[in-house]
Amino acid sequence: METNPNHMVPPTPAVDPPPQSLPSSQSHPQPIFSFPRRPTLRVTTEFDSDSAIFFHKISCKLLDTLAKFKFQFHNNSKGEISEPQLSFVSKHLSLHYDLEDQNALVKSSFDVGPRLHVKAAHDVKAQQGEVTMLANLADPGYALELSTPVPSVGLPKATLRFPVGEVSLQEKETEEEEAKNLLSVSGILKGQFFDGVGTAQYKDEELKLRYCYKDDEMSFIPTLSVPSNALSFAFKRRLTPSDKLSYWYNCDSNYWSAVYKRTYGKDFKFKTGYDSEVRLGWASLWVGDEGGKAKAAPMKMKVQFMLQVPQDDIKSSVLMFRVKKRWDI
After folding, report:
1. φ, ψ for residue 128 (rounded to 5)?
2. What are the Cα distances from residue 125, in Å, to 98, 101, 106, 128, 167?
3. Looking at residue 25, what DSSP letter applies?
4. Which residues lie closer than 8 Å to 290 by C-beta, 6 or more apart?
5. For position 176, what pLDDT does the model report?
6. 51: number of CA atoms within 13 Å, CB side?
7. Could you tell me which CATH number the domain at 37-89 has?
8. Where are the domain boundaries for CATH 2.20.25 in the chain?
9. Region Disordered: which residues (predicted)?
10. What are the pLDDT digits (tens) for 59-113?
11. Residue 140: is the preceding peptide bond cis (ω within 30°)?
12. Is 292 helix (H, G, I), strand (E, B) or coil?
């Protein structure tokens, strides 16, 4: 079929461009007044079957996590509330108020220059407190700490810290008037010794010598006190990655204790042991990390069951439990 040369193609009608979308600020106008979001409340409740007491704590973070408010109290099975306390904690200032005792404890800490730190605490009801100054003398690990009660009753306690220990000088309290200016010395030294760490601690005219050897499978820790010559040692052995056995023996009193621990993942832990001093055997089961917070536990709840079996009266065995639960509101 031939095309007619006199045929004209009708013009294409003009199409209007699509409307441009308005900026988000124009399509969704923002309110004139904006209110800050309510801080999240964290409620923690713990129950101890041995004391039959509930422990409650309510806390929240304020001012964009710059401060924290906390209210805690106890109550028994009769609903009686005891030990209510209010706390306000920030980086440089904290206030703890006891509603029953109607007393406040105020603590503060701040830096005075790059090498001087000051801490202070004051008991309002007792009209007593303490001031501590910590000066970093040199790096690494050299520092001088001075602390004194307020009102002052004598010379401040001075502690010199260095990389391998510390030494403290403090005025010794005595009933003898002629010896009231006597200073007591205490300190601790530690360092590498025979593939382990040796520690010497002197306090109250007693020297305690301690050695710790530790590798991936075993720990051995003997301790000797002078001048009493009391000797004890602790032994820990990791049988498998999930099993651990600990043993402690006092050579002076012949008392000993042993603990076996087995973990199942990170949320279950079984422990059993015996203490010869109190002649008591026991076993416990933890649901949730024993040393961690309820936040990381399954359903944000930690549970401990404990069975205590006295050697001399098995019939008086006791099964106890402890539950700790957290809610975020």
Report:
1. -135, 155
2. 11, 9, 11, 8, 33
3. H
4. 269, 304
5. 61
6. 11
7. 2.20.25
8. 37-89
9. 1-35
10. 999 887 789 999 999 999 888 999 999 999 999 999 999 999 999 999 999 999 8
11. yes
12. coil
pTM of the shown model: 0.74
Beta-sheet strands, E only, within 151-217 = 157-162, 165-171, 183-193, 196-203, 206-214
Would you list the DSSP string of 220-266? Answer: EEEEEEETTTEEEEEEEEEEETTEEEEEEEETTT--EEEEEEEEETT
- Distance, CA of 310 to CA of 282 (rounded, Å): 8
Please state, in angstroms and rounded to a whole number, the distance separating the CA atoms of residues 41 and 63. 14
Secondary structure letter of residue 78 according to DSSP: T
Rounded CA-CA distance 94/90 in Å is: 6
Q: What does each C-alpha distance from 159 to 146, 185, 228 come to in angstroms? A: 7, 10, 27
Q: In a 10 Å sphere around its CB, with 0-12 CB exposed, 13-18 middle and 19+ buried, how is residue 297 labelled?
A: buried
Asked whether 212 and 219 are in contact (CB, 8 A), the reply is yes
Tokens read off for 204: 């109250």
Contacts 24+ apart (CB under 8 A), 71-79: 76/52, 77/52
- For tokens 């309820």, name the residue: 294
